[in-house]
Amino acid sequence: MAAAVKAAAKAAGDGKDEGRLLAGRYRLGAVLGKGGMGTVWRAQDETLGRTVAVKELRFSSGVDEDEKRRLITRTLREAKAIARIRSGGAVTVYDVVDEDARPWIVMELIEGPSLAEFIRENGPLTPHRAAEVGLAVLDVLRAAHGQGILHRDVKPSNVLIAGNGRVVLTDFGIAQVEGDPSVTSTGMLVGAPSYISPERARGHKPGPPADMWSLGGLLYASVEGVPPYDKGSALATLTAVMTEPVEPPKNAGPLIEVIYGLLAKDPAHRLDDSRARAMLSAVLAAPEPEPAPVVAAAAEETRQISLADAKEAADKAAAEKAEKAAEKAAKKERERRDREQRERARAALKAARKAATAAAATTAVTAAEPPKSKPSPVKAPLTDVMQRRTIVLAAAAVVVVLAVVGSLIAYAFSNDDKDPKDESKGGGKPTPAASAPKDPGGGTGNTSPKPSGNTGDTGGNANGSAGSGAGAGTGGQQSPAANQGQGATSGGGAGGALPAGFVPVQDFGFHFSMAMPEGFKQTGTAGENSGGIYSRDGGFPRIQVDYTDKPGNDARLAWAKAAPAVAGSSTSYRQIRIDAVDYRGYPTVADWEFEREQKGIKVRVLNRGFKLDATHGYAIMISCAADQWDGAECTQMRNVAFETFQPLG
Q1: What is the pTM of this model?
Q2: Among residues 521, 526, 455, 529, which one has the least CA distance to residue 486?
Q3: 6 in a known ligand binding site
């Protein structure tokens, strides 16, 4: 029997079985494909007169009898698993034939390339088409998971694209069926490394989230043309899957949130079927952007070019480069002078306080001394020792010094220290043109994300007491009645008249000033002391301002990465949008708008994250009760917050 199996396998490998009749019914034709464990044939069902596909199990040389039995069991399991799945995206099994002591699976023939072949020949898919493929695969996975079947090998080469556009998920050869014993060799991990989930790579028992991870990898490869985490070797790739963040996709567009949500390393935070389906459906519902026209490169075209024109263009480019370099240098110099002035002002203030304390102590000691019995000699008048002109000059010098010290102290604690010429770049009061555009809801342009991934959770100081909060050198109180010595001060703001009911607030710890409603004070600290949360009583409405000295270069990408974790940890989370927006010309700005339930209240959040420069990144998060979002109070609070925000330090 073993010899017969070996001879049959060799004949199949040589293609000599072409024309063979299986079970007196299926006539083998051309070989469609070969894999490590089988060959797929085109065949003709002579009984029903239709074309079918026949999958033949083949054994490589050196396979022992135990391994053969395991492979036969796996093949029969694949046939049973496919037969149980009711989905238009799953191939249909017609029959199983036993010949040469091996099973042959007769199934529906799908005329078309695999997704991997399609991408290789035609390039990556558009996000819209990739969403269509993703939904089709998701349909099959939903049906399979409903039958207790895990595919465990979702990847582009196992997805077929039929000529009519139909998407079919194939090859359930390593599927795991609930209740069946494992047929995988102990200690072996079967699958494509780039599409194996972190929990499977660690040897944990997989569930449906493992297939969802693989779907995320498939979507990534569909739009990027390469698999995620591909490090060359299987071991290096699996290590990256378990420990490294995925390389940000460049062509994902509206699919980026779905991809990051599916590729979350923690299966508990990974998108499930319903959320992934909703997000993919939203991508399909959105109008597909017109493809950018491809302009043929003319670099190799031979042309006559004027040397004078070329020199003029080169000089212009050099001048623009020099101008940008000069602006950058001037900006750095202004920032350096600002820092030095602030440091000198603080030093002067410290010295003045120290001198005042010493003078008070001296006065107290002098007052406490008893009168001496012996009268002290009468001192000569100062005019007897120094000329009057010298005295006048010394007094004038003292007045000048005091004036300078007073100016420095006032400068250190005011916000009007920017050159009026710099107002359009973030200093001084922003002009209306520098603010974000108004949205239909009356806000200042959508939502508010933050570079450090704030979620609005407090890290302490939720009692609203004065003097704590950011404390410890990070700010303190913001209300006008707060102790001005705690670091946060009222006054400064963006300059100019404020609307009635608003007061300016400064916080040097979190490096910002802003106008807030009267009665607002710091009632919480965000994250690990990344920012302050301000409200009247710890409820809503509230404003949260976060600061980081290491901002990223893509605010929208930062929000997209943070969204799945926030969604997983929030109650009744509903994302409204994540959009790149324009705000004062800052290099990267994005708004993240969503709803969730907090403290039993349905809350709507607008989180605007932006980067000023390499060491200043902020997020302004406005939260209001959802049913009051478009009301006068919340609308005005949003507008004033974005219009009066100023960076400090």
Answers
A1: 0.49
A2: 521
A3: no
